[in-house]
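Sequence in, structure out.
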Amino acid sequence: MDLEEAKKKVKITPEERAAVEKYINMWHAEMNSIIGFQARQYVSAASEGWSLPGMDKQIKGDAGEEVLSMIENAGMVYSAMLKSMYEYTPPYKLMRGTSNKEISRLSKGSVYNRMLSTSTDERTAKSFGRYGDAAFLRIIPGPDIPFINVDEFIGRENLNRYENEYILAPFTKVSSNTFRSDWNGFKYYDVKLDKPEMRAFEDGEKEKLSQEIKEKFTDVVEKGKRMLAIYDRLELCQERLRVISDKEERKYYSDMQKANYDEMFALSPEISDFEDKMNRYVQGIFEEREREVKEAHDITKQEEERLAKEAYEKRQKELIDESTKQIKEDAPKVISTFQRAPDMLKNTYNSLKNEESRYSQMADILGVPFSLHIPGENIEENLEKLSKNVEDIKTRIDEITGTTFETSKSAMEAVSTLNNYQQKSETVKDNQNVSYNTVKQYSDEATFELKKGVDESVQRTILSTKYKLLQARRREVEGRKISFFGRIRGLGKLKDIELQNIDLEEKILRNTKIQSKSEYSVQDALADMKVFSIRELDGQNTEEMNQLSKRIRRVFGVHDNIIEMRAQEKMRSVPMVMTDIKKRVRTSEKIRRAEQRNSNLQAELADTQNSFGQNPGFGAYRRSEAIQNFERILDDTVKITMTQDDRPENIIENVTSRKNPYDDGYGTK
């Protein structure tokens, strides 16, 4: 059998489909009577009105031909079952409603010598139970039992009924039959079936059996009729012998019984022999179909396997070629991305060092502390590690690129490894981009620190100058000479109160904290100094104030008009208390004013003493957020580029969530 013929034979033919439709709609009894032919039952069924093959033919040969034709149709049904078995999924569990009489014949090893109608629907199956003698079979068909799913095979629209029906092949063997329960009018059984084993024709047997069936079928039917009549007479004899007592009459029926037994024993061998030949012929026809379908199926299966193997091998080669092409295209890009990383991160580090040096020099000029120093040892060590890691990655990728792959698995594993490196390279690239902004972030932090230092220097200078002014006032007050009449006027009391007030002001100055700000402005700091000069020094600066102003102007670009404008705004927000120095004030009024000021100063001192917290140290050390971010980026990049284990099953996920390194909380102005 060639491939084209095999392809045709594994498909259900129109003739097979027609035979199945006839079996389902009208031939199920006729076909099953022929498959499991028993002469007496065959004749009995015909006498009950069934139109069976060979019963209405007057010529022997015609009757035999009709029987052989029905066997051929049964063979086509069985062939369709075989093809369905190969094409469709078999049912796991089926159901059948029947009689307990049928069950009584189902013992282990017995054979269903007919096609078996079953259902997947319990209600449908039970509708076929025999009233008063109903049995319900839960059937578990074994593997390789040919079957037809009626609905799948010919479709509901072609049926005059719908029973969720599966038809199983004839000659299935009963491997077990277990009674389970008796409930609601049904006896329940679990039945397991095994695949049929058909007997093959021996050499020349098919033609010989066919000829015998053709020639002898009518004679055997006639013998079957005689056998049926014998059984009827034997039943009559047995009935009469049970009830009669007359000797002569009993002798009559005994003689009749013996004569019928003799005739039955004479007919039985010939009938049994023909029944056996019918069974052998049917099984031979089925075995031929089975062998033919199996051979066709094996040939097509081998072809399918060959084509599948060719397709698989072709796809494997395509996968290897695609993988190799992808590796050669992507590898240089991945290596290039990695190789840029050490230089770019080192350039960022050098830029940070330059900024550190620049701002450190500015801090020296300003005379303010600078704490944002870069701990270079750890960074430089990580930069060296990164360079080594990148070289290792290049070596590994070069190995992958130079490999000739034998299997698609190894090629795809290599692609997976390269993809892993590609993902890592994208993360490294992202880290590089993020690192650029650390230079600006560091500059903003350093600028903030310098401006803060300037503001603190100005405020400390103002406090220092205020303290010196108080000391000068103390010396002036302490140096006053008070005459006898001055004491009578209260000048001594005034002096004491003024000295007390100076003490209070000194204490207040010592307790005064330099307030931290969210924003610092050099212009504002110089405006504060100018306001102090106007209020306390008649618009003049001390040498310390002049030197500080010069240092600030060397570092920062300042605009005197802006300083003047902001000084005026500050003056307006806290207006000066104006006194008429030409107006003579009585001593008692001076004492009252001094006592009022004393009261106010004591309250102010209490406020400064009760305020919580402490004045931060001038130029207190702190770490730069920008440097910490750069260190984290560099450390992360070093870890990403490690190549200890780059197998596909151990790919590390490189995309991690990070805090925004620019959100440093500092504001600059």
